[in-house]
Hints:
The chain is built from nine helices and 14 strands. By secondary structure, it is of the alpha/beta class. The radius of gyration is 17 Å and the shape is globular.
Amino acid sequence: MDSIPGNRQLWNQISSAYQHRHDPQIGAAPRLWGMYSIPDAHLHALGDVTGKRVLELGCGAGQWSRALAAEGATVVGVDLSEAQLAAASRAMGTARYPLVQGAAEQLPFAADSFDLVFCDFGGLSWAPPHLAVPQAARVLVRGGRLVFNVASPWFEVCYDEAAGRVTTTLQRDYFGLDTIAEDDGATSYQLTYGDWVKVLRGAGLVIDDLIEPRPEPGTPNGYNETDPPDWGHRWPAELLWVTHKP
């Protein structure tokens, strides 16, 4: 299915409210991963980016991109939404970097363009992974890395739509994960662990690590209500994949 028009429309609609709610947290400090804003210094997923050519796949308002540009990376931010790109442009600091409108499943870049492609609940949450992962692999140089954070299947199958929160009860089939209907005709995507492995290996990538970020007890989830509040400390809410192109 073509989820690009619906997803672009959704993010254009919610961009302002999203940034108003979340930028004070995710824009206040560099390199914060996921729903619990866990520092990369604790997870060691990205490493040193100085001098690296970096693509943020679904950059939003550029919180990650501007931090990595300030560290000396040559960054490009790509996003589906012109409203999100406008927010990124307004927030850009002294370290300037290009912004490109595009979709993760149709990347407008030449092969072998980047040393690192990464996203944090970006393009690999909002584009079909069987299309987007091969595109990410295509634009990587040999030895380049694809690093990305997405929701865990556990988190998805325990989400109670009626209650609007994640619970301790299985709500949907694990083996039925694929497309997830979001508001206003938008679509996000989720795979089982096995299907993520198949997609990554099928794109010619080597899996170096699978980090399951675990927040400390009492760390709030900045995006979803969970019952119990320490859900993410007890079960994996996210998958942070670290891969490379041999």
